[in-house]
Please model this.
Amino acid sequence: MKKGIEVLRDKTLNRSVEFTHEEREALGLQGLLPHLVATQQHQVDRVMEILRRKENDIERYILLNSMQDRNERLFYAVVVEHIEEIMPLIYTPTVGQACREFSHIFRQTKGFYITPEDKGRIAKILGNWPEQDVRVIVVTDGQRILGLGDLGANGMGIPIGKLALYTASAGIRPHQCLPVMLDVGTNNQELRDDVLYLGYPKPRLEGEPYMELVDEFVQAVQQKFPKALIQFEDFLTPNAYTILDRYRDKVLCFNDDIQGTAAVALAGVYASTRITGMEFKDLRIMFLGAGSAATGIADLMVSALQEAGLSEEEAYRRLWFVDSKGLIVEGRDRLKAYNLRYAHKHAPMPFMEALDAIQPNVLIGATGSPGTFNKAVIEKMSAMNERPVIFALSNPTSRAECTAEEAYIWSDGRAVFTSGSPFDKVTYKGTEFRPGQGNNAYIFPGIGLGAIIANTRIITDAMFLIATRTLSQCVQEKDITRGSLYPRLTEIRKLSKAVAVAVAEEAFRSGLARVERPADLEQAVAEYMYDPLAALDPGNGA
Model:
């Protein structure tokens, strides 16, 4: 049993001035802390006061990052209690800047790094990780971080941030989370020239050697952490699809950019029909951008449209794509396999002409290029639709296709708008709009929690569709009235619980669960969830 200063240096044990005098005596902490015994609420309030004094968000990120290293329970108490204020600091948009500066603001390691030099011994070195009961792994290779591109090992900020949301949003216990960086090098010359860069300072591993390393990693996880869910994050689109197709039916995994984004976006489109009055199956939807996020959304929509009564052919015809070369049509050269199924018979044409020709009801941006939904685009969508549905999903905020204010002003207040990163409320002509954020955190934590409860073998498309419907059903009239297609983030633990129950139920129904169904599934989910705000007890990870 640890005592004295060792207790205060262990982030899982340290409660700082919250230790009672009796606990201080038992643990040998007398003299090591100020006299006052503070409540957790006092500590949370103190942290928020200090946080709000900081001059910019990257300094707030550093403060929170350091607190996570010192006092884990307090960190999560702050996140849970102030989720709307804190989530943009620990994840998008601030995490984008944090990844850019990762090597310069590095304080203490939080995750696991694998390089090409580790080939042949990945399972062995995974044994160096101090925890054995790992249930969720978020892994990236840093090649396509948000809309920022190749950030190499600096991309570790993404798995760290995602796993913080797993704990805060769905109660996955912190010690069961493992952030992993497949540091296979970087083609970002500026990074390799940076003397402070911490990553593998060589050009990216590619081709068969790259896939061999990924394969070894996945197999090593099966050996060392057989119950772990692997979440693939921010891989370049061709690699993202190759890896997902390789493993989705073999191991417990999913790709958040493809499947998580799809579920959240589809839930938003479902909710939008409550404003527009259109039937989901009647929508025409256009995507600007044809990478993993956009095609992932479309793939799930095809399933949803078929479920709504359309044939497969009719479902595909509802979905149209435009990339940097214009409308994706049949016969165009060099289309990727994941784009071919959306290449319809049609004359090729640029974006603005395609809007006129297709007359979409919903326009979804996943380009990583800010300003692509300009005034002319929004005005054209508004001329074609009484309530144009505009999704500007690119992250971080600086990469959004348009801002909330632009969408509302250019549409004369008629746009049904959502974004990938948060925007402040907008007042236009006396009406206050509070646009919701199509944040993947509404989906992936609940998926992970459901997978843990059912110990499911794989994650299926049916599970994502069920998670989507669950989320859309949680959107209340008060959310719709304020212009939001999603519930407030303050509801996220309740939402994650609902998603987890639905996903676990599907795992039991489909025979994919590896444990017996609890008599009360909802109660089993609730009892599992780590709650940093609850009274301390052994079952709560204290």
Remarks:
- Residues 267-441 form a domain with the Rossmann fold fold (CATH 3.40.50.720).
- Residues 537-542 have pLDDT under 50 and may be disordered.
